[in-house]
Specification:
The protein contains 30 helices and 29 strands. The strands form 8 sheets. Strands 4-3-5-6-7-13-14-15 form an 8-stranded mixed beta sheet. Strands 22, 23, 24, 25, 26, 27 and 29 form a 7-stranded mixed beta sheet that branches. Strands 10-11-12 form a 3-stranded antiparallel beta sheet, with helices on one face. It has 6 domains: 1-39 and 210-227 and 248-287, Rossmann fold (3-Layer(aba) Sandwich), CATH 3.40.50.2300; 41-177 and 288-342, Response regulator (Rossmann fold), CATH 3.40.50; 356-459, D-Maltodextrin-Binding Protein, domain 2, CATH 3.40.190.10; 477-573; 576-665 and 692-718, D-Maltodextrin-Binding Protein, domain 2, CATH 3.40.190; 754-851, no CATH class. It is of the alpha/beta class.
Length: 853
């Protein structure tokens, strides 16, 4: 406040104002060109303090500061730095500079009853040491406590007598680092000698950083005056009217003629002073290295440094590759309060009789999880029991330190629930409860305000629907074992296999010859008869046999699967869910239910259910009654609930209801604690010890075993019983590849055998005529095959049979055959004058064709 007045005066007179003790961060924002602060801003130390807190893993810190501008201006910077390392500031302790010892003791007792054991003291020197002295008196300088002093107190602590030093044992301090030099050592010797000569009654003659800044600031001013010169040190006197207006002598000083030049020279001064490198950056000394000291005995011991580049380091010249790393503190050994070298954990459950207030929900149903036993005479709770309570109690008994707690029902005076589960969780955020124990689900929006322990139950939300008996006779039930896409695919493959066998057998098998209608019927008959393995036609080619073998294997798998599925539909599958798809509920606008106070309500709203479709229930009996009524009569068609509740409901009403997919993922049940509570990690660790051991099985058997034993399949989900194409596409792929490969091989062999005849066609022959020619050849019997030689030409004398291969002597007499006529027709229609085959040449080619060479 004094600095503000002096700075305003300096601006008016244009005279540079130099201060070596004003460290308030608020002065940084003044931006006065005539104000020079030969000191570091107090905000530069907050990074060093937060690095210490982070290095030791402390999650909660309470600042204690003086109620004035000096104290208040630092707190926003300190809390912001702590928030960056995810450390909470649960409370701000503010004391007046004129606070009495009783007021200080009262505030410290309040802090003693809190969990936090890490305190940062930022106050004027006199008040700060009174706080530490009173803390030592009431027992807050014992083992488990952490005290950190800011730079002003750390710099000045040696100025107090030896009695005050006793209250500083184990305290950490942060202050600007002053590097050693020969000049500093010589100056310190001269200073002590002169100080003790002038003040013989004072033994403490330590040189602190404020004195060094003052010395360097005077040296810098002298250098600036030498550069600016002293030619014109006069002032321009203001026009002061004497008509009854009072003025001060300072206001009559006027405006300096040399002030602006002196200000410029002072801004450019750079030298190596006693305090280190001295130069002004934006009117103040730049932030430099901080040293961290530990006060013990009658002195202090340096335990490390903090630099803007490397963070915490043990040695000033060492490099810390992991800046601000919390894996291992980069500091030397520290003697903590209580004369111990064990690092305090930073928090402790108060042992003054205060118990943790544990909120528990009040439930009408599903009492296996949690139930409040009421004393109706006093209208208070006698006890709380249930699965959740037993798990929490088992975890707390394994804690390495005792924790006192008591359960408080979240209820109205008439023993009704005081709100939803979200309302109960909010009470922890507001500080009304220290924790919540119960069947509270871990969800994302709640974790924004509170912390959860690890889950101790299975997770998920599913849809519960009634089961109805399928007594209605269905004339088309035989179609249900296979889906429509599988039926269509199977039919297409029957046709494709028939066509493939006809191609492979047409030229060599008389069963596949004859009029077109007969050939088509035979092919279809052969293919579809494989469905019951009743095909009578023989296949004679190896390719056709290969195709039929593969296809019969596919058909066998299909028939066996169809038979098994149909058998299940007709015998086993007597019960079916009333609803199998959530979209059906939305389309029909049917009502659905959810447990009262559950987060499932928000999930259903997110699934586009209208508020009029939602109905609540509190007990399994209410849920059963809603199902009995049905959606049309004010009931529900389905319910959405968490899997632990569903398992309990199914155990009670086994065989009447079932769960239907899909299942919505959740994290399960967890215990609720305030954000940053140190208890969360320890309790989570003990929950793992409970759930992974025999104790959890005993707790489950105590509350659930009897009910679940009567309905062992209560956790199964109903899905479609029809077989789909996705289960058989591999078989169809094999059949398709094998059939296509056989067709390709047959086409290659056929064209190779007929290459002599095909080469006789003129090059000008159109593609359509070539196709007709190939089809005519394909339609003829292959007389070279063993089937026709065996059946029609066993007797070589029967040369009158036209189906027998002709003898060489009769080739010249066969020029009137249909094949030769077709060749002659093709040749005669060409425009080439060179292509006029003689009958003899065509007969030879026809004979080659008939022999199949």
């Amino acid at each position: 406040m004094q600095a503000n007045f002096v700075i305003s005066l300096g601006n008016k007179s244009q005279v540079p104002i130099i201060s070596f003790s004003a460290t308030s961060p608020a002065l940084t924002s003044l931006n006065s060109p005539y104000f020079f602060r030969a000191a570091q801003s107090g905000s530069s130390q907050v990074k060093a303090i937060s690095s210490i807190v982070k290095a030791f893993g402390w999650r909660q810190v309470v600042p204690i500061y003086v109620d004035n501008q000096f104290g208040e201006t630092l707190i926003p910077f300190l809390t912001a730095a702590l928030q960056e390392i995810n450390t909470r500031v649960p409370y701000l302790s503010v004391l007046s500079e004129s606070a009495t010892d009783d007021r200080i003791a009262k505030e410290l007792y309040k802090l003693m009853n809190m969990e936090t054991r890490v305190f940062i003291v930022h106050a004027a020197t006199s008040l700060g040491f009174r706080i530490l002295d009173k803390a030592e008196e009431i027992g807050m300088m014992s083992e488990g406590y952490v005290w950190i002093m800011t730079d002003s107190m750390t710099t000045m602590w040696r100025s107090f007598d030896s009695l005050a030093i006793d209250s500083l044992q184990g305290v950490l301090g942060v202050r600007p680092y002053v590097p050693k030099s020969k000049e500093l050592e010589n100056f310190s010797v001269r200073w002590r000698r002169k100080f003790q000569r002038d003040n013989p009654s004072i033994s403490n003659a330590e040189v602190n950083v404020f004195g060094l800044w003052a010395y360097d600031a005077t040296f810098a001013l002298a250098m600036a005056v030498e550069e600016a010169g002293t030619a014109d040190l006069s002032f321009i006197k203001p026009n002061i009217s004497s008509r009854g207006v009072s003025t001060t002598e300072l206001e009559t000083l006027g405006v300096s003629r040399n002030g602006p030049r002196l200000t410029r020279e002072l801004s450019n001064v750079t030298f190596r002073g006693l305090s280190g490198d001295f130069h002004f950056v934006n009117g103040q000394l730049d932030a430099s290295v901080f040293e961290i000291v530990n006060i013990n005995g009658n002195g202090e011991r340096r335990v490390g440094f903090w630099t803007p580049e490397s963070g915490l380091v043990r040695d000033m010249y060492s490099k810390n590759t992991s800046t601000n790393s919390t894996s291992k503190p980069k500091l030397g050994p520290i003697i903590w309060p209580g004369d111990t070298n064990l690092v305090p954990k930073g928090w402790q459950i108060p042992t003054d009789g205060k118990k943790l207030i544990i909120g528990v929900p009040v439930k009408d149903g599903f009492t296996e999880f949690l139930e409040v036993i009421w004393d109706y005479d006093t209208n208070t709770s006698k006890s709380v029991r249930g699965y959740c309570i037993d798990v929490f109690d088992a975890a707390m008994t394994k804690m390495p330190y005792p924790v006192a707690y008591k359960y408080v029902p979240f209820a109205t005076p008439d023993r009704k629930p005081a709100g939803s589960y979200n309302d109960l969780v909010d009470q922890v955020y507001y500080g009304n409860y220290d924790a919540v124990v119960g069947d509270t689900t871990i969800v994302a929006n709640r974790s924004m305000y509170v912390d959860f322990t690890l889950p101790y139950t299975e997770s998920g939300v599913s849809m519960l629907v009634p089961i109805r008996e399928n007594k209605k006779k269905n004339a088309w039930i035989f179609l249900q074992p296979l889906t429509s896409d599988l039926w269509i695919t199977s039919g297409c493959f029957f046709v494709f296999i028939g066509f493939t066998v006809w191609i492979l057998e047409h030229r060599i098998n008389k069963d596949f010859r004859g009029p077109p209608a007969h050939q088509i019927g035979t092919s279809f008959w052969f293919s579809f008869s494989t469905m019951v393995f009743a095909h009578r036609e023989k296949v004679v080619s190896n390719l056709a046999r290969f195709v039929v073998i593969i296809w019969c294997f596919v058909v066998l798998i299909l028939i066996q699967s169809y038979t098994a599925s149909l058998t299940s539909l007709l015998t086993v599958e007597k019960l079916q869910p009333t609803v199998t798809d959530i979209n059906v509920l939305l389309k029909r606008r049917e009502s659905v239910g959810f447990l009262y106070g559950s987060f499932v309500e928000g999930m259903l709203m997110g699934l586009k259910f209208d508020e009029s479709q939602l109905k609540t229930y509190r007990t399994p009996e209410e849920l059963h009654n809603l199902f009995v009524k049905g959606s049309a009569n004010g009931g529900i068609s389905a319910a959405f609930d968490e899997i632990p509740y569903i398992n309990m409901f199914l155990a009670k009403y086994c065989g009447k209801y079932t769960t239907v997919e899909p299942t919505f993922k959740t994290a399960g049940f967890g215990f609720v604690f305030p954000k940053g509570s140190p208890l969360v990690a320890d309790i989570s660790r003990e929950i793992l010890n409970v759930t992974q051991g025999d104790q959890m099985e005993q707790i489950q058997n105590k509350w659930f075993k009897n009910g679940e034993a009567t309905c062992p399949d209560s956790d199964t989900f109903v899905s479609s019983n029809s077989l789909g194409l996705d289960s058989f596409w591999g078989l169809f792929l094999i059949a398709g590849v094998s059939s296509t490969s056989a067709l390709i091989m047959f086409a290659a062999m056929f064209l190779y055998e007929q290459r002599h005849v095909l080469f006789q066609l003129p090059s000008e022959t159109s593609i359509w005529r070539r196709v007709r020619f190939v089809s005519r050849i394909f339609d003829e019997k292959d007389m070279s095959s063993h089937t026709f030689r065996k059946t029609e030409c066993s007797d070589h004398a029967s040369t009158s049979n036209t189906n027998c291969p002709p003898s060489p002597s009769s080739l010249s007499n066969q020029t009137d055959s249909s094949d030769f006529t077709f060749i002659v027709e093709l040749v005669s229609n060409t425009s080439s004058p060179d292509v006029s085959p003689s009958p003899g040449r065509s007969s030879i080619e026809l004979a080659d064709y008939n022999h199949g060479r």
